[in-house]
Amino acid sequence: MPHQIPTSVAAVDLGSNSFHMIICSLKDGKLQTIDRLKEMVRLAAGLDKNRNLDTATQEKALACLERFGERINSFPPHSVSIVGTNTLRLAKNAQQFISKAEKALGHPIHVISGIEEARLIYQGVAHSLAGSANRRFVMDIGGSSTEYIIGQHDTAHCKESLNMGCVTVSQKFFKKGQISKKAFKKATLFAEQHLVPFQGKFNRQQWDEAIGASGSLKTISNVLQTSGWSDNGITMTGLELLVAHLLKFNHYDQFNFPALSLERRPVFIGAVAIIYATFKTLNIEQMTVSDGALREGLVQDLLGRFYNHDIRSETSKIIAHRYHIDHQHASQIKETIHYMARQLTGLPCFQDDSDTLQFLNWMAELHEIGLEIAHSQYHKHSAYIIENGDLAGFSKQDQLVLSRLVRNHRKKLNLERFAELPWPWREYTPHMAVVFRIARLLHRSRHNPRPDFDIAIKDFEIRLKFPENWLEQSPLTQADLEQEILYLKEAKFNLIFE
């Protein structure tokens, strides 16, 4: 059952430099921004040498999220999208922080990969600009990563996320805010070294226009224009003048541009080093700056889910096609899962929760992709590809949930793998796995019609009732069900069939 379309949506971006929230009203498929909140938390600065987020930074971040949470805690769950980016990808204690942050916000947080971040940034930029057939190069400097994307219309074609950002570069090369020509040279060289492997992919010959998409690039553009060093966004000439001016100072405290806020001063020099190295390496002459960014991309993805255009379903179909899955077999399994779900509305995972059926649909499409690698243990290969691939639209958590389900779709059912998942998945996945295993088992012969059977599940007891004489006429399925009793018994499930 699809979710009701909400009247308002919210997107929250837990960036490595700033936390952003955007709230939009939604009417007849049209969005209007009604509120924006932004706080510079500088999460990346809180990573210690062991890659743990320190307590002071966590407390600052949680105080901000409590303020955000007050604004969105009454929103329905499906109308809010919250993502964590590079610092939460890197932090070893990210999960402990995320648990506290989810309580503050009243909604789940999804950590996304760098490639997914790049896709969403492009989506946000594409929807904030007038339609154009141009090939666009989009760049976003975050606190600890920088994304580079080339796309056309609203589709990103080339995407990269590099581990360098305005906070991390400022901290690494300009310790205690000290500025020097030598340090700036080292910082730009560091950025160039990260970018050189992708020079051919992103150089000036590959695109028509360059667009910047972050607070750092917006600030650099404003500083250039208010200083009279550029009259059209960011230019190479303007950057040369800006760098020469910055290197007259010994400390960032001495920067006195009207367009540079006090809170952005400590990370400004790192952002300038990254953009300067990028312009040099990719032969960029000029870049305009867009209002669209990651959070606008999140809102667009939310809209897609409301209006039957979930990018995750497209991705699942593309991967299934790439790995040559048996589409008819997948469709039959899906149909049987839906048939069973209609009888199992008492289970928490099927109570008005379309996400459960979506995951089971994706599972039907993707559970056999590992056959392309090897027939033996193919479910393990499938699970590995799902967990570690760049799957557009899927968060790291989505991929982990799907991977664990696929890993458990045959042979031994190991419930411990589900116990590590976040709520509510740790509660839903055991029954989801059982439903999928039964659907798959009934279609082992490939393309055989499904019998009209009854199913009931209460806690750990599963009862199946087949039409009279059907089991006698289906000895292979009967043998499989008897084997399944043994597999499920190990996981404390009791399967009874007649």
From TrEMBL:
Its EC number is 3.6.1.11. It is found in: Cell membrane. It is an enzyme of class 3 (hydrolase). Keywords: Cell membrane, Hydrolase, Membrane. One of its GO terms (cellular component) is plasma membrane. It comes from the Bacteria. This is Exopolyphosphatase. It is a peripheral membrane protein. It comes from Methylomonas paludis. Homodimer. The keyword Metal-binding does not apply. GO terms for biological process: polyphosphate catabolic process. It catalyses: [phosphate](n) + H2O = [phosphate](n-1) + phosphate + H(+). Residues 23-305 form the Ppx/GppA phosphatase N-terminal domain. Residues 311-484 form the Ppx/GppA phosphatase C-terminal domain.
